[in-house]
Specification:
The chain has 374 residues and is mainly alpha-helical.
C-alpha cells in the first residue's frame, strides 16, 4: 500500500516514498522485537541497565541481515533499536559504548534510510505501532498521548509542504497565491489542534520529570545525535517559504542548520531548494512597495489577507508552544537547560516575536489607508 490518508476525509497522497507508507512501517517487526520491547517500561521503571544492555545486544542484527531489508524494514528496525538507545542513555549509559556491535548497524541503517544513525521523532511517533504493539519508554498514558499529538501533525505537514512549494512558484498578483495560502492555513490549523491536544492531555510535570530524560543525545562514532524530540517535526519548513528564507535571525538560522539533519530526505531537499529564496512576506512587501501611492488591487489585497491569516495561526502555535516550554523548563521543574530539540526557551520566544512581526507587517498592509495617485 502506497497511499497515505490525510486528515481531510477522502484526501490521499499517492506516493511511492517509503517513509510515507505509515501502515507498513508500523506493521513491520524485522527484529522480532514485539515481546522484548513490551518489557522495556518495566526495565526503565527499575533502572535496569543490565537488562537493557542485554536487550540491545540481543536485538542488534548482523549486517548481512540488514542488507536484505527494504527501506520500510530498515525504518522499523531503527525505531526498535532506538527505544533501547534512549532508555540506556536515560539511566546514564552511552548505548554504543555499552554494546559496541550496534555501531555498524546504526551507521548502515542511517545510510540505507537516508537519515541520521539513530531514531528520530518520526520513528518514535508516526512510525510507531498502535495498540498493544506501541513502543514506549514508560508505558504511561501521557506518553502515548504525546506520541499521538505529534503523529496527527504528520499528514497535515506533508500537505502543507506541497502547498508551500506551490506558493514559492507564485507571485502575490497570481490568483493561486491566496488559494495556496488558504490551503496552507487549513493544514497549520491541525498543528494548532495538536498542541491544544498536548496541553489537555500531557502535564508539564510529566514531560519535564519523566519523559524528557529519554530524549538525551547519544554518541555515535564520536558525534552526538539528539533523541526523538518533537522539535524535529519541521514546522520551520512552513516558516521557510512564508517568511524565514529572507526575514530570519542568526540564532534561528543556526538552530535550523542543526535541526535539518533530522528531517526526511525529501524535506531536507525542500529546505535546500528554498533557503535563501524570496519568502511570501518578502514578495508581498516588494509588491506593496510598487503600490504605496495606490489603492491595493483586489488580488493583492486577497493575498495579503490570506498571508496574514496563516501567519496568525503560526503565531498562535508558537505562543502555545512557548507556554508549554516555559512550564516544563521552569526552575521548579526542569532537569535540563535546553529543550529536547536543542533549543533554549529564549529561542522559542525569539521565533514567536519574528512570526508576530511578520504577521503585523502583513496585516497593516491590509488596513492602512492609501491615497489614489494624482
Amino acid at each position: 500500500m502506497t497511499l497515505y490518508d490525510l486528515v481531510e476525509p477522502g484526501l490521499v497522497i499517492a506516493c511511492a516514498e517509503p517513509r510515507y507508507r505509515i501502515s507498513e512501517i508500523r506493521a513491520a517487526d524485522p527484529l522480532g522485537a514485539d515481546a522484548l520491547l513490551a518489557a522495556v517500561p518495566g526495565m526503565n521503571r527499575d533502572a535496569d541497565v543490565a537488562a537493557l544492555t542485554v536487550a540491545l545486544r540481543a536485538l542488534a542484527p548482523d549486517l548481512d541481515r540488514v542488507a536484505e531489508w527494504s527501506v520500510v524494514e530498515a525504518l522499523a528496525g531503527m525505531r526498535d533499536l532506538g527505544l533501547l538507545l534512549g532508555s540506556l542513555k536515560r539511566h546514564g549509559a552511552e548505548p554504543v559504548a555499552a554494546v559496541p556491535e550496534v555501531l555498524p548497524v546504526l551507521e548502515e541503517l542511517g545510510r540505507r534510510t537516508g537519515m541520521v544513525p539513530r531514531d528520530t521523532v518520526h520513528h518514535y511517533t508516526t512510525w510507531n505501532p498502535l495498540g498493544r504493539r506501541r513502543r514506549t519508554y514508560t508505558g504511561a498514558e501521557m506518553e502515548a498521548h504525546l506520541q499521538d499529538a505529534v503523529s496527527m501533525v504528520f499528514p497535515s505537514l506533508v500537505a502543507a509542504l506541497d502547498t508551500c512549494g506551490e506558493l514559492a512558484r507564485l507571485e502575490p498578483y497570481d490568483p493561486g497565491f491566496a488559494l495556496a495560502l488558504d490551503r496552507t492555513a487549513q493544514h497549520v490549523q491541525s498543528m494548532v489542534d495538536s498542541i491544544d491536544f498536548t496541553v489537555a492531555n500531557v502535564t508539564p510535570e510529566f514531560f519535564a520529570r519523566v519523559l524528557r530524560p529519554y530524549f538525551e543525545e547519544i554518541d555515535v562514532a564520536g558525534r552526538d545525535y539528539l533523541g526523538p524530540a518533537a522539535a524535529q517535526v519541521p514546522l520551520w519548513l512552513v516558516d521557510l517559504t512564508l517568511w524565514q528564507s529572507d526575514r530570519s535571525d542568526p540564532r534561528y538560522d543556526a538552530f535550523l542548520e542543526e535541526s535539518v539533519q533530522y528531517s526526511l530526505p525529501s524535506w531536507r531537499a525542500f529546505h535546500a531548494a528554498h533557503r535563501g529564496g524570496a519568502s511570501a512576506v518578502g514578495k508581498l512587501s516588494a509588491a506593496l512597495s510598487w503600490e504605496t501611492t495606490h489603492r491595493l488591487s483586489p488580488q493583492l489585497t486577497a493575498s495579503a489577507v490570506s498571508l496574514a491569516r496563516v501567519l496568525r495561526l503560526l503565531k498562535t502555535f508558537r505562543a502555545r508552544h512557548l507556554g508549554i516550554a516555559r512550564k516544563a523548563y521552569h526552575d521548579d521543574l526542569r532537569l535540563y537547560e535546553a529543550g529536547s530539540g536543542g533549543a533554549p526557551v529564549a529561542l522559542l520566544r525569539g521565533v514567536l516575536d519574528l512570526t508576530r512581526d511578520n504577521e503585523t507587517l502583513v496585516r497593516r498592509a491590509t488596513v492602512l489607508p492609501r491615497t489614489p495617485a494624482a
